[in-house]
Amino acid sequence: MFSDKDIAHFSNLETPFYYYDLELLQNTIKTCTNAANKYEFHVHYAMKANFNDKVINEIRQAGLGADCVSGGEVRKAIESGFENHKVVFAGVGKSDKEINYALDHNIFCFNVESLQELEVINELAAQKQKTAKVAIRINPNVDAHTHANITTGLDENKFGINSWDMLACAEILRKSANLEFIGIHFHIGSQITNLDVYKNLCVRVNEFASWFEDKGFKVGVLNVGGGLGIDYHKPDQQIPDFEAYFKIFNDFLDVKPYQEVHFELGRALVGQCASLISRVLYVKNGKKKNFVVLDAGMTELMRPALYQAYHQIENLSKKQEPATVKYDIVGPICESTDCFGKEVLLPETHRNDVFAIRSTGAYGEVMASHYNLREDIRSYTAQDF
Ligand SMILES: Cc1ncc(COP(=O)(O)O)c(C=O)c1O
Ligand SMILES: N[C@@H](CCCC[NH3+])C(=O)O
Questions:
Q1: Which residues carry this modification: N6-(pyridoxal phosphate)lysine (predicted)?
Q2: Which domains does the chain have, with CATH numbers?
Q3: Which of 100, 259, 269, 293 could pair covalently with 282 via S-S, beta carbons 3.0-4.6 A apart?
Q4: pTM value > 0.90
């Protein structure tokens, strides 16, 4: 995937850094919006996946909305030029300060995750003599069949309002003069690769939409969240099957003529557009194991340490040579979980070889930390060379 010219540029730069392929990002966004437009579906970008300025600029220019999960993300969306009426704010723990900021900026809606939060938003909106638009995030108890740490729509998860609280929720909505109910919201998890899961979600969305309408509420928005996964084993087959994904919702959701269907995609849009580029500091050949020590660690890419996530690892300096040696690929951080891959078969590796850790556009740069007093992580695009 990387040309010899790319690799020559990488070799001249201080590592580690994220390398973004903006052309691939543009193609991914275009494929997604073309597939969504076919059914008049609306896509908000889940900003938590990556808020690098260059990335969100591409997304904003393509006309997508922004799905935010903190006051900081709402501010970033507004300051980056996303139109207020395309900004949504979800999250189980919105502080008063964050709610006030979002109210001041007249965002499209709050995806509300508890009964108490509904009351607080009503109170804060009343103080400003405003009406807050709200969608109810419902926990549908649908298994996303993904890693347990990134599932969000089961009874044991903290997200959303449970079905048994819906009557109380309807009561609060009815008596809250400063809330305008606009619809219902779901998000069952991330890195979902079994699309059948979404059929189960559609069944639940249909049930809850009918429930609210039977109680006299107009459900204008069906927000089904995001979660579409990418293939971490095939970083070069880069654009997810958006056609198949949206078709499921078209086939299984009962959408009334006055209803809009909203999506919140993160990883599927940005996951494949970046690689973490790192240099080999040391190679340690032990009796039982060989270690490659990189200059990138879990502070630059936390996913393997946090979820034992797989990322393809390539030695770019030896790309013509056969893979003959198994290495554990580790970072410099003082944690034993600081490991990007175990027993990875690679060409014989040496100090200063340049490595790429692929498919790191989503939840890579944004989850970087300063633990061990690490420096800020750099990033480049092809246009920087
Ligand atoms: C509420 C909400 N919406 C959207 C997303 C985006 O998820 P993904 O990056 O898996 O598409 C997430 C993260 O899982 C989320 O929590
Ligand atoms: N950060 C996670 C996914 C969580 C998504 C946010 N709800 C990942 O890297 O896979």
A1: 48
A2: 4-17+272-384 (2.40.37.10), 22-271 (3.20.20.10)
A3: 293
A4: yes
